[in-house]
């Protein structure tokens, strides 16, 4: 992926999000209709089912596996002709992020998915850990990549609720990452949760894992075109289905778990819970914009699935009600507590920020060539 200056004049700011993505890497997804016909088979027992499955695999699907292990025990489904799995492919590129990448981590010194993922992508990063866990982390992560969180960031942190609870959550480490990147002379920085399993590209109705730092580089290249995009990041992969059309980007929404932050933003992290949603809302209340990409995605582990982090510090003992309530207390004009998916959540009305318009820095902008190559993995 190379950057060339294209002498093209934008006489007005595009109103269509796809026009904003102009001269960026290809995003080609369409809405795919559901099946016109479905057929249901019933089996008296497991033996009959296994016999049927093997015959179908051999004579209909030419020996290819057509039912994966992620389906329910009692109900199975497949397409004919078989839809090729995205897991057979990988995107390979040449670029890495130009701004520093920080992972905030606590209690995940035995299994740290984000650092493993970035290692496979050859992306440099730093992991911010607390002093009493440093020796444990250095057993799995190169010491050169570890930063110890200074105690003052915890002591000075605004937890929002004025109570006797001394727990801070990851906010102090996020604020330290912000200051550290400024001291290094950068205009932006990335801050990531520690339970991200993959970064993927969504194109041609396939979500394919990336083996290089191009997703970071491309989003940076897009964001630096604008004066007022304060926070940006990647959508969750499990929020997008392969058969759906979504625009390549979405303005003015919350950015979760993997954030690119403009360092001149006159805010800092606060709150014990949902601090990523809070800082996005505060930025948008200032008239600034956020942007989330659907072309690049993050494969985030579900909340409370992995031990350590907020799971151990908060959710194992108190559930999710408090974290939703704090957000409503912070922004009662935007957020409400709601019950869905068998646990407490928050619902935020981001439509009130629809008048926040992204402003281009210049009428001359860069074209970012798409040099990511889709390769088939050798089986």
Structure overview:
With 379 residues, the chain is of the alpha/beta class. It has two domains: 271 residues, Spore Coat Polysaccharide Biosynthesis Protein SpsA, Chain A; 37 residues, no CATH class. Helix content is 23%, strand content 22%. It contains ten helices and 16 strands. The strands form four sheets. Strands 3, 4, 5, 6, 7, 8, 9, 10, 11 and 12 form a ten-stranded mixed beta sheet that branches. Strand 7 and strand 8 form a beta hairpin. The N terminus is likely disordered.
Write the layout of secondary structure elements.
Elements: E1 3-6, H1 17-20, H2 46-59, E2 89-92, E3 101-104, H3 113-120, E4 126-129, H4 134-137, E5 146-148, H5 151-155, H6 171-183, E6 188-192, E7 196-203, E8 206-209, H7 214-223, E9 229-236, E10 249-251, E11 258-262, H8 275-285, E12 289-300, H9 309-318, H10 321-330, E13 335-340, E14 343-348, E15 365-368, E16 373-376
Parallel strand pairs: 3-4, 3-6, 4-5, 9-12
Antiparallel strand pairs: 1-15, 2-16, 6-11, 7-8, 7-12, 9-11, 10-12, 13-14
């Amino acid at each position: 992926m190379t950057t060339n200056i294209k002498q093209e004049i934008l006489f007005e700011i595009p109103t269509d999000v796809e026009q904003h993505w102009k001269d960026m890497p290809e995003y080609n997804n369409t809405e795919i209709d559901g099946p016109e016909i479905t057929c249901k088979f019933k089996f008296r027992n497991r033996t009959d089912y296994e016999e049927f499955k093997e015959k179908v695999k051999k004579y209909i699907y030419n020996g290819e596996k057509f039912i994966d292990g992620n389906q329910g025990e009692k109900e199975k489904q497949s397409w004919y002709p078989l839809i090729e799995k995205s897991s057979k492919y990988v995107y390979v590129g040449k670029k890495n992020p130009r701004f520093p990448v920080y992972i905030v981590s606590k209690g995940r010194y035995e299994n740290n998915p984000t650092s493993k993922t970035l290692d496979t992508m050859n992306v440099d990063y730093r992991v911010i850990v607390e002093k009493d866990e440093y020796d444990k982390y250095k057993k799995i992560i190169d010491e050169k990549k570890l930063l110890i969180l200074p105690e003052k960031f915890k002591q000075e942190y605004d937890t929002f609720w004025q109570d006797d609870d001394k727990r801070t959550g990851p906010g102090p480490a996020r604020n330290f990452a912000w200051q550290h990147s400024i001291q290094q002379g950068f205009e932006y920085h990335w801050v990531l949760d520690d339970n991200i399993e993959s970064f993927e590209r969504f194109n041609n109705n396939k979500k394919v894992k990336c083996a290089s730092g191009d997703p970071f580089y491309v989003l940076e290249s897009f964001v630096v075109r604008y004066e007022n995009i304060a926070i940006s990041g990647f959508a969750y992969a499990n929020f997008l289905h392969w058969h759906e059309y979504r625009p390549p980007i979405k303005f003015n929404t919350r950015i979760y778990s993997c954030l690119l932050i403009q360092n001149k933003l006159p805010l800092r992290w606060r709150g014990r819970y949902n601090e990523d949603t809070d800082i996005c809302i505060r930025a948008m209340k200032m008239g600034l914009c956020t942007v989330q990409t659907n072309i690049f995605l993050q494969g985030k582990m579900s909340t409370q699935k992995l031990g350590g982090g907020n799971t151990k510090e908060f959710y194992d003992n108190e559930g999710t009600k408090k974290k939703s309530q704090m957000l409503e207390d912070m922004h009662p004009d935007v957020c409400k507590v709601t019950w869905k998916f068998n646990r407490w959540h928050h619902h935020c009305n981001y439509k009130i920020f629809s008048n926040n318009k992204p402003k281009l820095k210049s009428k001359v902008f860069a074209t970012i060539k798409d040099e990511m190559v889709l390769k088939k993995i050798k089986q």
